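Notes continue from the previous slide.

Worked example: a multi-chain complex. Inputs as given:
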Amino acid sequence: MKKQNPDMDVYIINRDIRTPGFKELLYREAREKGVIFIRYELDRKPVVKESDDGTVEVIVFDPVLQKDILIKADLISLQTAIEPVSNKEMAEVFGVELDEDNFFAASPEKLMPVDSTKEGIFIAGVANYPRDIKECISQARAAASKAISLLRAEYLLKGGAVAEVDPGKCAVCCTCVRTCPFGIPYIDHSRGAAYIDPLLCKGCGICVSECPGKAIKMSYCSDEMLVQAPAVLLKQIA
Amino acid sequence: MIVAEAKPIKEILEMIEGFNKILVVGCKGCVTVCNVGGAKEVAILASAIRIAEKKKGKEVEVGEITLERQCDPEYIEELKDIIQDYEAVVSLACGVGPQFISERYPEARVFPAVNTKFMGGAVEHGVWAERCAGCGQCVIHYFGGMCPIARCSKSLMNGPCGGSNHGKCEVSPEIDCIWDKIVRKMMAQGRLDELLKIRPPKSWLTARDGGPRKMVREELAK
Amino acid sequence: MQEFKPKIVAFYCSNCASSAAEISNKLGLFLPENIKLINVPCTGRIEILHLLKAFENGADMVYVVGCQEDSCQYINGILKLKKRVAHVKNMLEQMGIEPQRLEVFSLYAGKGQDFVNIANEMLNRAKQLGPIY
C-alpha cells in the first residue's frame, strides 16, 4: 500500500510479530517506508468507535509514547485469529490426529511435514497451522507430489519389520488396541482376535511389549533376541 | 473379571526363603488380562528370584509354567508330573489357583504371589475399578444400572448419606459417591420418583457373609 | 591385581539414539568393548523381563538410551520405558541389588558427544559399584 501511495498513512496495531524465514526483511522495508507499528497489551486493547461524521476512529495506547493515540481511519482491516472449527469430525472420519490446538497434526516422524499421523493421508497449508499463501502453495505441491509417487508406484515395499498377532494366543483383551500410539490394531471379530494391518504398522514394537499374553510377535526384534543377544554378547567379555 | 495385584517382590522372596527348587505357576485367565499373573509375569518373577538368590550366593532352580486356568481341575492335573521335582510352588493366579493346587497336591508347599482384590473392569488402560461385590442378589436395575453394594462405602440401599461431598465420598476424595451418580442419572432419565421407594435392608445371606458359597446346577451336574 | 572390567549392556533406539551414535562414530569416538549395544526400533519395545534377564545373565550395569520425551518418533515409547525402568529399580532394591545399576537416558539426535559421555558415566558408575554378584 505504501509503495502505491507513499503519502498514505499506514498503521499496524499488533500483539506479537514473528518473522520466520526472510520475512524480517519485509518488516524492515515496511518500517523504512514509514509504516507505523503500535504494540498493544491485553489489558489495554485498542478501541474502535464510529465518530459523529460517520468515519471510524481507533484509540490505541502507544507503549513508547505512553499516551493514547487517536487514528481517524478510512479503512480498517481486521486480521483475526484463525481457529479450527470442525476438524474433529473430519479427523475421526480419516482416523488422523489433531494437535493440541486442534489443527491437523503432522507426522511425529522427522522431516515429514506434509504427512498426517496416518500413512497415505497428507495435509497442507492452514490445515496444519496458519501460514501465508506462499507456504501453503509449496506445501500443497509437496503433498500432491507425495500422493502421486504413492499412486504411481508399481509396487510398494511394506511389512517386514512389523508386528503380527497370533490369533490362537490372542485373549482379545484390547490392550494393543488401546496402547498403539497410532491406533492401528483393531478387533477383527471374524478372526476372534486383534488384527494389525502390516501395511500400516510402523514397527515400533510397543504392542509387542504391552500384550499381556505374548500373542504379538515381531521377528525383527523378538523376545528371544532381546533376552539371548545380551547373554551371548556378555560372554564375549574377557 | 477378577482383579489382583502383585505382592511386593520382597514379600515373595521372604516366603520362599530356604527353598532351592521353586515352581512358578501362572494363569492365562483373569490375571493375564490384568497384567499380574500371566506367562510374562511368571518369567519376570522367576528371573527376579534367580537374581536375588544369586546375589546371596545361592543357585536356585526356578521352573516356569503357565496353565490355561487354575480354576479347572483338568489344568491343575497338568502339574502332576513336575510338581514333585520342586520344594515350593508359587502361584500367580487369583485366590482360587493356589487353593486348587493345594487340594490336588496335598504335599506341596504352595505360596500366593498376588493379592486378589475385587471383581471389576478396566476403566482405562492400566486402571481397573471395582464394580461387583458378589452379593448374590443383583439389583442394579433399582439404581439406574449401578451397584451401591460394591460402590458405596457403606453399601447403602437408600442413599446418599450425609457424607456425600460434591460427588465424592467422605471416606476419601478419590472415591466417587455412587449415590450422587445414581440420583443424577435417575433425574436425567426422569425416574427420580423410583428412588422414593424404600428398599428393605439387604439380606446378606446370599453374600459371603452367609458362609462360603457353592453353586450346583442340577441340570448340568451328574 | 587385575582391574575390574564391568560388563555393561546398553539398549538404544533406532531413532534419536541411533543417530547420535552414528554422529559419535563420525567424530572418531567409539565405545569400549565391554559395553554391548543392543538396537531396538523404539525403547518402548523393551520390557521389564529384558532388563532383568540382562542382570540374570551377568550384566553389572544396564542402561537404555532413547529419544527426548517430546520427540519420540513413536510418540510415547520412551515414556513407557521410563516407567518400566522405575518399576525395575524398585524391584532391584527389594532384591538386594543396587538400583543404580539400571539407568535410562533421553538424548538429542544430533548429540554424538552425549552418546559417548553417557557410556563413560555408566562405565565409571559400574566400576564404583563393583561386580553385581
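Summary box: Chain A has three domains: 11-73, 87-151, 163-237. The interface with chain C takes residues 108-110, 161, 181-182, 202-206, 208-210, 218, 220-221, 223, 226-227, 229-231, 233-238 of chain A (CB under 8 Å).
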